Each structure stands twice: as structure tokens, then as C-alpha cells.
Amino acid sequence: EHYEDAANHYRRAMAAMPGFARGHANLGNALAKLKRWDEALQSLRQAIKLDAKQPNAIQLRLTIATALRHLQRESESIADLDAALAIEPDNADIITRKAYILGTLGRLDEARALIGQAEQLKPDETAPYVVGSRMVRFSAGDPVIAKMEKLAARSDLPDAERAGLLFALGKAYDDCGEFDRAFAEFAAANAIMRRLFEYHESRELAGKARIVEVFTRDLMRGKAGWGHE
What we know:
It is a single chain. By secondary structure, the chain is mainly α. The chain has 13 helices and no strands. Helix 2 packs antiparallel against helix 3 (37-50), helix 6 (92-104) runs antiparallel to helix 7 and helix 9 packs antiparallel against helix 10.
């Protein structure tokens, strides 16, 4: 994974062929891998401008939406998600992504409607349930809980998807006042997450202590008025 080298080569190619849409797309994707979102956005936008109907147009739109989300420009990403949906209107993944953005913007009724659509299109996908669980308060007997339970019983779910689903189930049980069941789901989800990520408690605690040591009251007072509001 030499994304920096790839980006440098793509830049040289774009200097020689500025009208090559695929080259701008590749450069934007490499920059996105490097999490250089502003630069990635410029290249991806140029790729779309040069050829909005290229074969990978949907993925480009999704990467643009991801870049905008990381830049905290969520509302702008809706147009690109809509452009992707214009190509594939029944794509449950894109519908779920749009629902997530609408939820963060407080447009909950629209978000819930999209989640319901995604659940119908892909009842065996975990993402709509995970995203949707954050937007509702469950009550006993909610049919969505039974659907999540059935999905969680499958043995072929990837670990990351299972963990997300178990967190959603835990939230549902918690909403219903079934706290022991909720805790069991949260514990199982966290056990999976613990296997997926490298975590060193001593390192984390040392980092927290260092923050306290460096960012003193005097330092913060001296920086008053700086930074983003």
C-alpha cells in the first residue's frame, strides 16, 4: 500500500493529461486512502466534472460523500448520494448512507423512512438495523427486534457486522427496560471489538495523563480566542 507514491505518479500523469477523468479519480482515491480529504475532494470532483457517467461513478460519489463527512460538510454530501441513487435507486447501501447523514442533520422522519426502505430491500444486511437503531426508541414487541435477533443468530456474519448488530440489539433491549439482556449484548459486542482492535490500557492511561500534564489551565487561557469556535 504505497498510496503516497501512487498519488505522486498520478499527479505527474495529470500534468501531462489534465483531461483524463480516470486519472483524476485514481488520484482522488489515493488521497482518500491517505485521509487527505480536501485534496481528495478536488480530484474526485474533477473526475466527475470530466466524465459523470464513467463506470465507477457510483463509487466516486460515495468517496466524495465520505470526504465531505470527514470535513464535517455532511449536508453537501446528500447531493452526491442522490446522484449515486439516480444510477442505482434500489441500492440499500447508498440508501442507508443517506439515512445516516439525514439522521446526523436532525431530519429523522426522512431518515427513518429510508431505513425502512433499506430494510425491505436487504433484510439480511446489518447496516440498516444498526443505523436505524440510533433513530428510534424501541418498545416491547417491536418487529424490528425480532428481525435483528434472527439475523444475529446467523453464524456467517463477519465480526464487525455482528458487533454492530449486537450493539443495536443491546440498545433495543435497553429501551425496553430489559437491562440484563442489554448488558449481555453489549458485553458480547465489546468482546468482538476487543479482538478487532489493538488496545493497550497502559498506553492509553499514559496518554491521558500526558494530556492533563500538557494542557494546563494557564496554557488554555493563553490560547483563548484561537481555533474553531
